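Intended use. Records like the one below are meant for learning the mapping from a protein sequence to its folded structure. Do not use them to infer anything beyond what is encoded.
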Amino acid sequence: MKEISPTDYIVSNQLNFLSGRVVHLVTEYNRTKDIQLLEEACRDLATLVQRERFIEERFSAECSN
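Structure written out for the chain above:
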């Protein structure tokens, strides 16, 4: 399998900052096995979920008006 850097993956898939950070942290964890990186990724994922729920709720409220 061909290696791709996290940055190349993030750019080529047009990921936003939080999504890109999660990719970077998980990739770095695979290299270092530092569990704190996974904990940071979990926090960022939780923030991303909150953000997406907020956007979804706002969008559906606007569409129902």
